[in-house]
Amino acid sequence: MKKRTFVLTCFASLFLGTVAVFAQTSDKPITYEEAMKIALERIGGGIVWDAELEQERIGLVYEIEIRKDGIKYDVYINAMTKEVMRVHEEGRYNATARTPPCFTTAKITVERAKALALQRAGGGIVEEVDFERKGNQLIYEIEVRVNRRKIEVHIDAVTGRVLRSR
What we know:
Layout: H1 2-24, H2 32-43, E1 47-56, E2 59-68, E3 71-78, E4 84-92, H3 110-121, E5 125-134, E6 137-146, E7 149-156, E8 162-165
Antiparallel strand pairs: 1-2, 1-5, 2-3, 3-4, 5-6, 6-7, 7-8
């Protein structure tokens, strides 16, 4: 009898937990801006250094790199539920090094960058979007799959100019 009660309790907990997770999910992922805000709140401020959205086995996940007080942090956020899945402290970096422009200087939204990449690739499906610094320039690196071919398009996040596609 105890074993049966335990099994029923576990099943009920699993079912209710699954219902709760589905209740919190959206059919649309959060934006880069929302993900960066969540990550900064979790760390308690700092500078967003890098942001990536990737398809993982559990779904879409943002990896936001933040630098604060000489320490690098990676914050992993479920793009559908807004859940902070994990925070990884990478270690120290040279805090006196010149800081490139902040992500808030980007004038082109990720949606616009994706549209430009799809236009450049001649259609297809966006598989990955990275938002990062290259020197003093903010760049969207967007992977587009067209049939069986993968095309990587780099777009200036301030001007919207296509810098490279291959």
